[in-house]
Amino acid sequence: MATTATNALSLSSSSTVIAAKDTHRQPASASPQCVSLPTLPPPPVQSQSRVSRTTAYCRKIARNVVAMATTGEAPAAAAAAPAVTPTSADEAPSEVDTTELLKTIQDAWDKVDDKYAVSSLAVAGVVALWGSAGMISAIDRLPLIPGVFELVGIGYTGWFAYKNLLYTPDREALLQKIKDTYKDIIGSS
Hints:
Blueprint: H1 2-12, H2 14-25, H3 46-71, H4 76-80, H5 98-111, H6 115-140, H7 145-165, H8 168-186
Helix pairs in contact: 1-2
Pfam families: CAAD
Organism: Spinacia oleracea (Spinach)
Subcellular location: Membrane
């Protein structure tokens, strides 16, 4: 009698058949509405100490840079340690003299006659850089355009290499053109 009721139930609607099959396959505790996710392990403690060590090291470097820029002398801890460790025995450590660089920049700024124009150009350059970065990111979000630009870039790179780098006379002409442009910008000394 029970089989007749099940057959009659399965013939009446297709959803009842699915429900009847699901009750036979799934245990009573499992429900299609509730899904439990496994818990995540706690984050490692080492990363927190690494972050604090990195932050402390960066603050130490910043203090040393500020001290060197204001007084012109390196702090005792920074002066004792070499700036760059050599990778091989025949390499000497290269040290950049920050005070000399700052003095050169300051002398160049003192030679400028129209400081207002130079400052305006610097601000305009920063604004143009910021605007172009925003425009590039907006174009990059479009679906088809980045792929097309990538293909154009690959094609132009191939054409440039074929036209200017493949044969020796073309390479020499390109190098001469670069040198002439450099002399026009910098000036002949």
